């Protein structure tokens, strides 16, 4: 009887340990260590870029969701309902799903994405004399971020 009770206690202990979530500690780094000397909040990246299409920078923001662990695909909250789609330059990075909701420092290249009408306008391929199809676009276009390094802050 004693052995059964001991065996039962050991089984419960092992299952409790196995179900514990892995905590991601402060300062954990994925990829290269980001330079945190000049950090921009994620909600100010669009304004900081102004008319530039690409910039190298370090941003601080909250991860909304890890969309694909292999390759390090995730979404950052850019404030006011906007999202920055981010992925690692090095496909060999695996991000844990537990990063969701964490505040991180991310270093890399921010880039504005343009829609087809914008690209046509920039190329000068507009047809005169025909009715042009206009698309109402959000003045703050979608941003993508190619990550070189990520560090967990909180």
| Overall helicity | 10-25%
CATH architecture: Beta Barrel
Number of helices: 3
Question: Radius of gyration from the CA trace?
Answer: 22 Å
Structural class, please? Answer: alpha+beta
Q: What percentage of the residues does DSSP assign to strands (E)?
A: 25-35%
CATH class call: Mainly Beta
Structural domains: how many: 1
- Mean pLDDT across the residues is 81
CATH superfamily: Bacterial OB-fold
Morphology call: elongated
Biggest pleated sheet: 5 strands, mixed, barrel
The rounded distance between the terminal residues' Cα atoms is 48 Å
Report the order of strands and helices: HEEHEEEEHE
List the helices and strands and how they pair.
Elements (H helix, E strand, L loop, with lengths): L1 H17 L10 E3 L7 E3 L3 H5 L4 E15 L4 E5 L5 E6 L14 E10 L3 H8 L19 E10 L2
Parallel strand pairs: 2-3, 5-7
Antiparallel strand pairs: 1-7, 3-4, 3-6, 4-5, 6-7
């Amino acid at each position: 009887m004693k052995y059964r009770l001991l065996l039962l206690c050991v089984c419960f202990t092992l299952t409790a340990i196995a179900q514990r979530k892995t905590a991601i500690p402060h300062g954990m780094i994925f990829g290269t260590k980001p330079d945190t000397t000049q950090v921009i909040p994620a909600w100010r990246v669009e304004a900081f870029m102004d008319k530039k299409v690409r910039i190298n920078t370090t941003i601080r923001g909250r991860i909304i969701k890890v969309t694909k662990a292999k390759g390090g695909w995730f979404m950052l909250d850019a404030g006011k309902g906007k999202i920055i789609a981010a992925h690692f330059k090095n496909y060999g990075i695996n991000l844990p799903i537990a990063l969701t909701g964490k505040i991180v420092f991310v270093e890399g290249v921010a880039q504005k994405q343009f829609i087809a009408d914008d690209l046509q306008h920039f190329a000068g391929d507009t047809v005169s004399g025909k009715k042009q199809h206009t698309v109402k676009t959000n003045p703050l276009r979608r941003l993508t971020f190619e990550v070189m390094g990520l560090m967990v802050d909180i």
